[in-house]
């Protein structure tokens, strides 16, 4: 758990960064809010797989190591909790009373490059 974060719930884990500690547009990753609806699962990196299937021409699977080995890029993104500003509702509603929206930089695979460049199916927007 990051030092200096406000613990809103211990189980499931929900942490918030004090608004007064913001010093710019980008929130450091170690200070980013944590919003969980369920307990955090134990996941084995050796057994974990990302399956890309459905409306793609060629479904495929990636291991965690393959994902880490891919070309990556860094982007700035703003995330906002769907229950944001619940704290301001009158009368009060059930749930953690907070307001969450933060911007941070994230680094991860560039999914437009091989092996993740499987084309969408011929008509991925078709209605059923």
Q: What are the SSEs and their pairings?
A:
Blueprint: E1 6-9, E2 14-16, E3 34-35, E4 49-52, E5 60-63, H1 64-69, E6 72-80, E7 101-109
Antiparallel strand pairs: 1-2, 2-3, 4-5, 6-7
How is this structure best described in words?
The protein has 128 residues and is mainly beta. The chain has a single domain, classed as Oxidoreductase, molybdopterin-binding domain (Sulfite Oxidase, Chain A, domain 2). It has one helix and seven strands; from the N terminus they run E-E-E-E-E-H-E-E. The chain has one helix at 64-69; strands at residues 6-9, 14-16, 34-35, 49-52, 60-63, 72-80, 101-109. The strands form three sheets. The protein has a three-stranded antiparallel β-sheet with strand order 1-2-3, with no helix packed on it. It has a two-stranded antiparallel sheet with strand order 4-5. A hairpin with a 4-residue loop joins strand 1 and strand 2. It is elongated, with a radius of gyration of 19 Å. The N and C termini lie far apart (45 Å). The model has no long low-confidence stretch (mean pLDDT 80).
């Amino acid at each position: 758990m990051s030092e200096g974060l406000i613990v809103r719930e211990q189980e499931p884990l929900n942490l918030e960064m004090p608004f007064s500690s913001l010093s710019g547009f980008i929130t450091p990753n170690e200070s980013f809010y944590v919003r969980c609806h369920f307990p955090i699962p134990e996941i084995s990196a050796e057994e974990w797989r990302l399956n890309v299937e459905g409306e793609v021409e060629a479904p495929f699977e990636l291991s965690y190591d393959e994902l880490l080995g891919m070309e990556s890029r860094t982007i700035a993104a703003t995330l906002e909790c769907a229950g944001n500003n619940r704290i301001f509702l009158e009368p009060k509603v059930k749930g953690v009373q907070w307001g969450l929206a933060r911007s941070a930089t994230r680094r991860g695979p560039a999914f437009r490059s091989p092996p993740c460049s499987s084309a969408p199916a011929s008509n991925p927007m078709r209605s059923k």
